[in-house]
Amino acid sequence: MSTSEIDALVFDVLGTLVDEPAGIRAGIRALDPSLDEPRIEQLLALWQQHIEREQRRILDGARPYLTSDALDLEAARLVADAAGVDDPAAVAALARSVRRLPPWPDTVTGLALVAAHAWDLRAAQHHGLRTACIARPVGDPPTPSDRFDLHAADLPDLADQLGNA
């Protein structure tokens, strides 16, 4: 595929690039390390059901709009109550667990079409991927013999190049 055939690069991050359940599970484990795996799964399901139900209510107009942070805090309180934890700091930490979501195994590799390190781009090329080098003040700059598909000063420059290709 030539660069001119690319109309857009679009990524849905939550769920597509990052593993939301794994991040919430880690938060639940930190909330109460004595919980066993079946109980963690129950509490995860409670979290997910709450978020899904409340998002649906917001979309249906039955509830005013709330930010994700506010919904996550509600879910964290619900899970903490079900786990018997009443420490406000622990509840807040659980709510923030959705900000530390691990990537899916293929995410890092999949996003390696763009990098600031020539060694990463060389490896990507070796595996048949197209490459775009973003100039950064750190890392491994390209050598004169490197032949990457695109060279960009920054992400907006890359976007411009893709848009004009």
Estimated radius of gyration:
21 Å
Helix content percent band:
40-55%
Shape: elongated
Instruction: Point out poorly predicted stretches.
Output: 7-11
> Sheet bearing the most strands, described?
3 strands, parallel
Query: In order across it, which strands form the biggest sheet?
Result: 1-2-3
Number of helices: 7
Protein structure class: mainly alpha
Question: Could you give the topology of this structure?
Answer:
Elements: H1 20-31, H2 37-59, H3 68-83, H4 88-96, H5 107-110, E1 114-115, H6 118-126, E2 132-134, E3 150-152, H7 155-164
Question: Which features characterize this protein?
Answer:
mainly alpha, 165 residues, three-stranded parallel β-sheet
Structure description:
The protein has 165 residues and is mainly alpha-helical. Helix content is 50%, strand content 5%. The protein has helices spanning 20-31, 37-59, 68-83, 88-96, 107-110, 118-126, 155-164, and strands at 114-115, 132-134, 150-152. The protein has a three-stranded parallel β-sheet, with helices on both faces. α6 links the parallel β1 (114-115) and β2. α1 (20-31) packs across α2 (37-59) and α2 (37-59) packs antiparallel against α3 (68-83). The longest helix has 23 residues, at 37-59. Mean pLDDT is 85; it is low at 7-11.
Briefly characterize the structure.
The protein is mostly helical. The chain contains 7 helices and 3 strands, in the order H-H-H-H-H-E-H-E-E-H. Helix 1 crosses helix 2 (37-59), helix 1 (20-31) runs antiparallel to helix 4 (88-96) and helix 2 (37-59) runs antiparallel to helix 3.
